[in-house]
Each structure stands twice: as C-alpha cells, then as structure tokens.
Amino acid sequence: MMGGICVTLLGIVYKKVLTSYAHFILHKYKTNNSDAYIHSVASKPYSKDPTIRRPLEYTQEKLNHVMEWREEAGAPEMEELVNLANGPETAPEAVEQPEKLVKAKALATSLNNGSLYWHGFTKEGKPVLWIRCGRKPWYPNVEAEINALILIADAGIKCMPEGVTDFVIVSDSYSPPPPVPSFMINVLKALVRGYPDRLSVLMSAPVGSIIQFVMNLLLPLMPGRLAGKFLLKDEHDAQEVLKEWLVNGEDGIPTFFGGKADHDKFYPEEGYSKNKGQGTLKFDYFGMIERLQAASKEWEEAQKK
Predict the structure, then answer these.
(1) Is the pTM of this model over 0.85?
(2) Is the pLDDT reported for residue 292 higher than 70?
C-alpha cells in the first residue's frame, strides 16, 4: 500500500518538475516545444536500460542539446528570412542587411522547387511532410537546404493539434538526384539533435539503387530508435500504407503515388509557380500554413464528435 502511494507521489513530483522545466525552456528559448512534447521525450525508453523511462537528468540534457543545436543552426531566424525573401529588395530591412538578404534568397531558392511541404494529417492527427525527391537539385546549396528543412519542420510543429507531438514523412523517391553526403549527414544531424522523438515514421517509395545506397550509408550512423522508423516500400505497398494512414484514406493518396489527390495544385514545380510577394519567394509557404492550420482544427473538431 505504502509502496503504491510512494510511486504515485514520485510520479506527481516528476510530472511537476517536467512541467516547470518545460515552461523554463519555452520562456528562455521561445521554442515550439510544448509541455506535451517534453513529457513525450521523458516518457520514452531509456537507451541504456529500455525497461525504464528516461531519467529526468537525461531528458533535461537531451532538451538542452536541442536548444543548443537550434541556436547554432540559426533556427529562430528562419521565419524572418522567409519574410525577407518575400519582400522587395528595396525594403529597409533588406538594404540594411545585405548578407541576410543573400541568405534569405538562397532559402527561397531551396523552397521554390516545391520538393518539401506539409499537406494533410494522418488519422492519428500527425501532420504529413511530403518529400518530392525528383524535384531536388543535383548540386544543392547544403546550408540553404537545411535552412528550408528547419523552416518547414518548425511550421508543421506549430500547426500540430493539441497533444500531438510527432509527424510522419512520406518520400516520393522516384528519380532522386545523386546523393550528396554532406547534405545527408546534416539532415540526419537535424533529426537526431534538433528534432528528437519528433519523427513518428518515414516511408520512402519506390526504392531504387540510390535510395538503397543512402540508407546503407545512414543506417549505421542512426540511433537504434530512429533506424527503426524507416519503411522502404514499392509503389503498390505504399498505396496500401497511405490508405491506412491518411485521414482521408484512399482519397488522400496523391497522384504521384497513383491516387487522386492533386498536390501540384498547391505545390507545383517552380516553372509553374508565381511570385507570392514582391521578392523571390514562389513557394506558397504562407498558404501551406493556413491550410495546415485549418486541417488541424478540422481534425480536433472531429475528435469531439
């Protein structure tokens, strides 16, 4: 009896400490990490002893590393950069910050090919990040590509329904460009250090020799928990998985996977896009956020019925 009471009290104390720490993180770093996410990180099995959940000290250290990585990567300024890229080059903030303008225009270039965007949710309320590998450049600006990933990832996290803490990635891996090791390593570093426990699962289809090469290179470098979240499928199997995952089921499967949903209506190739403002941004970043917010609210409302 007393043992049960002690365990309950310890659980309450642990939760209160985590909540206080969450508020500290939110205040200090102005981050997107919610209480729910921080509790989710703490609840995962401890890598050194999977029979127990992560100790408080380990959770705090992990989250501190997230914040340090975000500062190093310049994550807090990405929203400012996309706004700068969407405005005229004659604007005072552009004229007074020429180096930042160059960085903003490089970010816009990485976004404009429409190779990375959020669209829709799973039945569990997880936002879906779509990667169109065939649209990726053969010779990427690695820094700008990583900046685009940070910007897009943060935007999706902000739009998550209440209580949801992770997302799904679906990669259309038909005709990918040759692998660039520095880019792949930086993407892996972003997932591990910048967005731990955010990825629920990543499905890639179809799987050709380039994707197999990439996975053979990256898998040995991944933590065990992350490596187990990758699914490699052919197109038919991918259709069945998407039918099971997506909130709209079969109707949500995009045309590039043999379905009916036309993503290109919102995210066309760059040649079919128009400038969204007075700058160099063609990708519909702000429309993407509006659509994702609306879909998030729709999912939340559906859970109340």
Answers:
(1) yes
(2) yes
